[in-house]
Amino acid sequence: MAVEPGVAQPLVARPRPARTVRLGGHAYPLVLPTLRDPRLHVASVIITIHVLGQVGLGFWVSVPQILAAMLTSAVLEVAITFRQSKAIVWPASAMLTGSGVALILRVVGTQPGDHWSLNGVWLYAIVAAASLLSKYVVRWQGTHVFNPSNLGLVVTFLVLGTTRVEPLDFWWAPITNPAMILAYLVIGGGGLLITRRLRLLELAAAFWLTLVAGLLVLAASGHCITAGWAFAPVCGADYVRVISLSPEVMVFLFFMITDPKTVPAGRVARVAFGGLVGALAVVLMAPQTDEFGTKVGLLSSLVILCAARWSLERFVPAPGAAGDSLAAFGRRLLGPEPATHVVRTVARAGLVAVVVLALGGTIVLAGTPARGTVVPDATELLTRLPAGVDPATLPAITLDQDVTDFDPTLAGNGIRDVVVTLGQNLELENLALRQHDDAILASIDHGDRLVEMEALVKAAQAGGTVVTAHYRFETIAVSLLVPFGRQSGLSLGLAATGTVVRETWDASGHLVSSVQAPFQTTFALRRATGARWLNVAVLPAQPAG
User: Fold this and answer.
1) pTM
2) Is residue 2 a contact partner of residue 150, using CB atoms and an 8 Å limit?
3) Residue pLDDT, tens place only, 506-535
4) Residue 71 and residue 90: Cα distance in Å, rounded?
5) Where are the beta strands (DSSP E) in 383-538?
6) E strands in 13-162
């Protein structure tokens, strides 16, 4: 992510460098970073993650997109500092801004493995430029207010929306993936060393502990989200685990919220800042039902707290003051010292309880719009079928390697059970059409397919004809269908061929015609409501061959 750790000293305060560059007959100072510059250490972490993303983690970003963001930021920074100081300064912070934008931003149409795609290169350059320029435009008391790439990314996601861009996933790869193990080691090891050196480890810890506590409350209230890397909604313990241990969240806490230029200077203020970012992040994430909104909520929390930074500093001790310690601030917050140890303990416990209950209540209340999803039970509906689907009639099923890599349980009988469910769903759709009963559909369809079938049932209820389709599969090939945009869930794509019998029924329920033809289509299934595999999309049938 975009980070600018390291206290960047004003150009006028730098000692005159020994190196110069001659341009047009004039000698200009050349300022290069030192090996002790924390920005170089952060850059090494982020660049390593980019490399791992290209070679082992399947990131949906290309090398030209990464370079467009980094080089645009670098060129702008060099030009601006040259104009201000007549010196050529290595753009360490700007390149971090660009690499952070490239790490988080994804543009629709970019495919994993297409390392040299030029798709949306211009957008990476624009977002990186806008992020970098915000540092010079939005300023207060002589310094920039927002973390540049954090602000640029949030504005981009809010303006362009889910159909054009999306943020990097919370989940990158199975923990057994060697590249994923190395990514955790690089992020965790580098993050701990850098934040400890910058004396920002307490801030990061305050954020993470508050975030985890809030996520536990949110998950306990019944909160779930859909994600592009999961067949079913992510709920309960999985929701807390995936987000709190996400490598993306680790990057956020180690390298974005810990930008020394955009956090308070005092020790108490920094801990309060980290805790408030974590609390606000959960409140903003609570109303969200998909990963896109959840991630934008997380990023937006830092934008809001950066804007409120100077207001926060009014309520905490000044940096270096005698009361600038957590213990001293706690005593001050409680007021005059109670007469006895027991009273003092009760008073402090009461204060903690009030804060915890207030935060928990706010989280639960904020999450109200996202709750209330009922998972339909299809058990009774399946008994309505005049005949079940015989697994023995299924053809041989081929699976792409990425399917079994992602979920080994889908090998063998696992995928046959999915195909049986598809057959049941298709017959239940026919039953819903024949009986004009749209109540059946919520148990077998979801998303676009549910909307499509509900429209057909309403047409039948209005007295129109009904066309049912009975499929006989000859070949089935299964692959992963990874969505883009709303990050609304990973699906299985069952590319099937065979024959389909289309029957037309009139409004009185009489069979008008029956036509058999070959078909070639793809059925998309996902466990959108948790348990049963549901039809989420069916491409229009086409003649085979």
Assistant:
1) 0.83
2) yes
3) 888 889 999 999 999 999 999 888 878 999
4) 12
5) 397-399, 466-481, 491-505, 511-526, 534-538
6) 20-23, 26-31, 88-89, 105-107, 139-140, 143-144
